[in-house]
Design brief:
The protein is α+β, with helices and mostly antiparallel strands and 204 residues long. Helix content is 53%, strand content 19%. β2 and β3 form a beta hairpin. The longest helix is centred in the last third of the chain and has 33 residues, at 170-202. The radius of gyration is 17 Å and the shape is globular.
Length: 204
């Protein structure tokens, strides 16, 4: 079983299955980015049973690209190995990380059970970041606190991390996993592993 950067635990944090009414969201602001991402997830979830994994991948990809900053996420996760990588390797690594991330999401979106994602508030985070505080409310009314960490980029606000129940940063978890692979197989090995797992999920 592959040990990849995007752990299933991390993916659970990304799966916010519906958006309930919340505070007004500024155009292209942090809450707007999170909210639009979840609207797309909800639509894919509702249609999941009639779509293949590849079709769900294609439906999710544009939303993920507009919501998450994959280059910075994999740069942080790969640490010093990123600096050692060639421009070509960096490009390939970003794309492999992106494919694996979306493919796993597409695999997990295989139905809908009425879960509700509720936007709570925005608050200032460290180092010029903003936190979008949310709750994932299940049918039994139990809730999971989920915080999205966003940073401003030239193209606008983007998600760079997700934190569950005020706990550990999932980016740090992926950082630990990636570096274990990088230590043993280097950048080419990580690229190959991520693409291989993505293909396995998409074409299953």
């Amino acid at each position: 079983m592959y040990r990849t950067c995007l752990s299933f635990k991390a993916l659970i944090l990304f799966i916010c299955l519906a958006v309930s009414p919340g505070p007004a969201m500024a155009e292209s602001g942090p809450s707007d980015i999170v909210g639009k991402f979840q609207v797309n997830l909800l639509q894919v979830m509702k249609e999941a049973e009639s779509l293949t994994v590849r079709q769900r991948f294609e439906r999710l990809a544009p939303s993920v690209d507009k919501s998450f900053h994959m280059p910075l996420m994999i740069q942080i996760a790969s640490g010093g190995f990123w600096k050692q990588a060639t421009p070509s390797e960096r490009t390939q690594l970003v794309e492999a990380f992106r494919r694996m991330s979306i493919a796993t999401l597409a695999t997990l979106f295989d139905g809908y059970s009425g879960e509700v994602f509720k936007l709570e508030k925005e608050m200032q985070g460290p180092q010029k970041t903003m936190l979008v505080m949310t709750k994932l409310i299940k049918l039994d009314k139990s809730a999971v606190d989920i915080a999205y960490v966003l940073r401003p980029f030239k193209e606008g606000w983007r998600i760079i991390d997700v934190i569950l129940d005020n706990g550990i940063s999932e980016l740090k978890v992926r950082q630990s996993e990636c570096r274990l692979i990088l230590k043993n197989k280097g950048i080419p090995g990580l690229i190959s592993l991520l693409n291989g797992k993505a293909d396995e999920l998409i074409f299953q």
